[in-house]
Amino acid sequence: MKIYNTLTRKTEEFKPIKNGRVGVYACGPTVYNFAHIGNLRTYVFEDILKRILLYNDYKVKHIMNITDVGHLTDDADSGEDKMEKGAKREGKTAWQIAKFYTTAFKKDLKDLNIVAPTKFTKATDNIKEQIDLIKTLEKKGFAYKTTDGVYFDTSKLPDYGKLANLKNQELKAGARVEMGEKKNITDFALWKFSPADQKRQMEWLSPWGKGFPGWHIECSAMSAKYLGQPFDIHCGGIDHVPVHHTNEIAQSEAANDKPLANYWLHGEFMLMGEDKMAKSSDNFITLETLKNKNLNPLAYRYLLLQTHYRKQLNFSWSAVEAAQNGLEHLYNIIKTWGRPKGNCEAYEKKFLEAINNDLDTPAALAIMWDLIKDPIYPPETKKTTILKFDKVFGLGLNKIKKDSSKLPASIQKLVHKRNQARTDKNWSESDNLRKEIEALGYIVKDTPEGTKVSKI
Ligand code: AMP
Ligand code: ZN
């Protein structure tokens, strides 16, 4: 299995630390708002990575953190804590905000058929581990105190910035950043003190003063706790390369004198026109927005699979609609097939080559469609192989039942009632009946030829 390693800038053969086992750490959401579909692109990419590892018979331990403290509105360690900001926005406590958006996030993962991580781990549940790590860094001379916090001294680490290949250019660009009392522009907060003039909701005692952890330290502390150091694969969105992951590496490697992770994988951005989709701007689209437009979250997943994870993807409504049509077409074909029997070895071989070539899902989808159109294999044989492919795609193909065009009497009765409501122009009644039918596992479509009902 080959994967592109941001650290070496090469596509490399993947070799796990322990035979047959893989430890994966994925940076999770900052739970101060809903995830937007750009964020969700990153989690789908990580899910595909994990499913491909499983397809290759690895046992995967997948850890995802929940950032519920310490992520400031500005990457340069200034600005407000996003959690406290979210709490003010909604008139709730930061703890309530964290709980609400964590639940919403998990629901999004489920809707997108993302296999849940082995463990979600919250930053606020691991404050002691973070303080211990900062103590080690202090003992080893990597930490210094200012009036607003404890900072990591990046000048003490000769290979600081190796992940992003940070050179003079970036450092010059960084010079525009507010230095405050920092010794070097790239130094970053390990611990921030609670502001004297402001009551924070989330704060803890530490050897340096009351406050809260910096954003990066949580991932160093929690990855070591659950996966050890080094572990196999660390992943996240591409924006994490120059700051967050660079600083995770700095802390973990300075503290323990060994690499943090062997492979670093990064998913490219989802764009809206020229801009990246961001939680702070008004081009913010959630999975709920898609669902409200009758778009199936799995159609969004299908759209994502059509672009390689290391390529930028421009969001458009017409693209999701086309993906939804493509997915429905796929479901309709599979509906006509009987029980799986036999398998198509030649296609399975090609498929494995594609997914093991740095997660090439666009090529893997093309192989699936070639197989569908192949005149030689019978449908039942195609079905075995395509259901196997879907262990990676995760498009819910195993839930597609053979179309037994006769509807059960109870559904027919509801459809009849709904037709009557439509004739009477009683739209709210007709809408309620549609929801009732859908809840029973059937799709209702009003076409020029009349109402069509089929199994989901
Ligand atoms: P956050 O909740 O802001 O910490 O971000 C969660 C994840 O989404 C991180 O891995 C980010 O790198 C990723 N991310 C943020 N914006 C985008 C985007 N527009 N497209 C793809 N991934 C993104
Ligand atoms: Zn992280």
UniProtKB/TrEMBL annotation:
Its cofactor is Zn(2+). A motif ('HIGH' region) lies at residues 29-39. Residues 14-324 form the tRNA synthetases class I catalytic domain. GO terms for biological process: cysteinyl-tRNA aminoacylation. The keyword Protein biosynthesis applies. Its EC number is 6.1.1.16. It is found in: Cytoplasm. ATP binds at residue 279. Binds 1 zinc ion per subunit. It comes from the Bacteria. GO terms for molecular function: ATP binding; cysteine-tRNA ligase activity; zinc ion binding. It is an enzyme of class 6 (ligase). InterPro entries: Cys-tRNA-ligase, Cys-tRNA/MSH_ligase, CysS_C, Rossmann-like_a/b/a_fold, tRNA-synt_1_cat_dom, tRNAsynth_Ia_anticodon-bd. Keywords: Aminoacyl-tRNA synthetase, ATP-binding, Cytoplasm, Ligase, Metal-binding, Nucleotide-binding, Protein biosynthesis, Zinc. Residues 406-449 form the Cysteinyl-tRNA ligase anticodon binding domain. Pfam families: CysS_C, tRNA-synt_1e. Zn(2+) binds at residues 27, 219, 244, 248. Signal peptide: none annotated. GO terms for cellular component: cytosol. A motif ('KMSKS' region) lies at residues 276-280. It catalyses: tRNA(Cys) + L-cysteine + ATP = L-cysteinyl-tRNA(Cys) + AMP + diphosphate. Monomer. Belongs to the class-I aminoacyl-tRNA synthetase family. This is Cysteine--tRNA ligase. It comes from Candidatus Magasanikbacteria bacterium RIFOXYD1_FULL_40_23. The lineage of its organism: Bacteria, Candidatus Magasanikiibacteriota. The gene is cysS.
